[in-house]
Design a protein that fits this description.
The chain is an alpha+beta fold. It folds into 3 domains: 113 residues, Beta-Lactamase (2-Layer Sandwich); 71 residues; 151 residues, 2-Layer Sandwich (Heat Shock Protein 90). Helices cover 43% and strands 28% of the residues. It contains 11 helices and 12 strands. The strands form 3 sheets. A 5-stranded antiparallel sheet has the order 2-1-5-4-3. A 5-stranded mixed sheet has the order 7-9-10-12-11, sandwiched between helices. α6 runs antiparallel to α7 and α9 runs antiparallel to α11. The protein is elongated and about 100 Å long. The relative contact order is 0.10.
Length: 357
């Protein structure tokens, strides 16, 4: 059964994933929310069977087959399904029968992603906590920079009064350390310029970062491309996005100690809410490494300034990356377990306004 133009507009605007299977339980229709949920395009998914889309979902296949044979709809809550990528989703499932006089009965499956609600709550909490941390850092920076300026000025005045060159060396140390602390505070504050927006392509940005990291003498590091070529150009500041992505990929390379695999993956997502704003189309860039993972106790604060798992690290790279993506109206998320750490950059594919958003 082919949906009408009006039906298409409704289905494409829904946040619920809608799948239609024919009598052979091969996929006949998938709406954009379904593409996002299954992480697959309708072109790739069409005519695939239940087991192709959900490996190991024998119970689901049997229930759909029974629904087709008996003409009985059914509902199932908190259904756990595994995707071919290995990712697990938790959904509420509503199955309805459709009758087409030409092709016969079809089965309509609606998936409401339960973990989507958790993701939205987590994103809002992440943004709130990050903004609160930024306000705290700004307050501390103000309190630190004022006495630093006085300290540096006093050291300069003292240096002019000293005739002994050996004593002047001490004042130069004071001035140098004051400058170093001022620069550190400025880095903690993150970017203070609005994006210089211009048309750009996400794959040019990702490829630039890939080439930079590949040139950094990681002989046993494999950088794998997994790009969606259909992502349209968008308006952004490519230099800021290169810096944000470079911070993340370099962190992954350091976590792997130059030995392992990093996957750079791009996809589009439809009807995504970031913070309090809903976007029709969002670019998603995943940086996935097979390193040791991030300790669970660090995941909640990993984007805060000065939080790091490396003794030699400053803990500013991810904080700066989050700031650079935030000024583009986007967000960086992170999930991690041993052998799989995934940073996800979400960027609206919409023009920035006069305030950089």
């Amino acid at each position: 059964m082919k949906p009408t133009t009006r039906d298409n507009r409704i289905l494409e605007g829904m946040s619920t994933a809608v799948l239609v299977f024919n009598r052979a339980l091969q996929l006949a229709y998938l709406n954009p929310a379904g593409e996002m949920l299954l992480d697959i395009s309708v072109r790739q998914a069409r005519a695939q069977g239940v087991q192709d889309l959900f490996p190991g979902a024998h119970d689901l296949e049997e229930r759909l087959r029974h629904a087709l044979g008996s003409n009985h709809p059914y509902t199932e809550h908190e259904l756990h399904l595994q995707l071919p990528s290995g990712r697990e989703i938790i959904v509420d499932c509503i199955v309805t029968l459709l009758f087409d006089p030409v092709s016969g009965n079809e089965v309509l499956v609606e998936f409401t992603q339960m973990d989507r609600h958790l993701r939205l709550a987590r994103e809002e909490n992440l943004l709130e906590q990050y903004q609160a941390a930024r306000q705290l850092v700004r307050g501390l920076a103000h309190e630190i920079k004022n006495p630093l300026g006085g300290l540096r000025g006093a050291a300069q005045l003292l240096e002019r009064e000293l005739a002994n060159e050996e004593l002047k060396e001490y004042t130069r140390i004071i001035i140098g350390e004051a400058d170093r602390l001022r620069n550190l505070v400025n880095r903690m504050l993150g970017p203070n310029q609005l994006p210089k927006a211009r048309p750009c392509n996400i794959h040019q940005i990702v490829e630039h970062v890939r080439n930079l990291v590949a040139a950094e003498e990681h002989d046993e590091l494999l950088l794998v491309r997994d790009y969606d070529p259909s992502i349209p150009d968008f308006t952004a500041d490519p230099e800021q996005l290169i810096q944000a992505l470079l911070n993340i990929v370099r962190n992954a390379a350091q976590a792997l100690q130059g030995k392992g695999q990093i996957i750079l993956r791009t996809r589009t997502m439809r009807n995504v809410t970031l913070g309090q704003k809903r976007h029709k189309l969002v670019a998603r860039v995943d940086v996935i490494d097979n390193g040791p993972g991030i300790p669970a106790e660090m995941l909640e604060t990993i984007f805060y300034p000065m939080v790091t798992g490396r003794a030699e690290g400053t803990g500013l790279g991810l904080s700066i990356a989050q700031s650079l993506v935030n000024v583009h109206g986007g967000l960086i998320e992170c999930s991690s377990r041993p052998g799989h750490t995934e940073f996800t950059i979400l960027l609206p594919l919409e023009p920035l306004d006069d305030h950089g958003r």
